[in-house]
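debug: dumping io for the single-chain case to check the tokenizer round-trip. Nothing else runs in this session.
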Amino acid sequence: MVFKLVVIAVLLAIVASLFSGLVFLYRDRGQGTRAVRALTVRIGLSIMLFLLLLVAFRLGWLPAVR
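debug: decoded output
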């Protein structure tokens, strides 16, 4: 149950970072670096979630679907 909450929290953080990147892109009109930083955070969170799911599967926290 805790693992599901962690995955959901990371997914929400990814969506929030994506949305903040959109807002910064609109407000800065492409002149600032805040949008790039927000999207870099999103990519980092996505990679972290992927690795977390791989490790959880390897440790047996996620059952294999047959």
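debug: round-trip ok. The radius of gyration is 15 Å.
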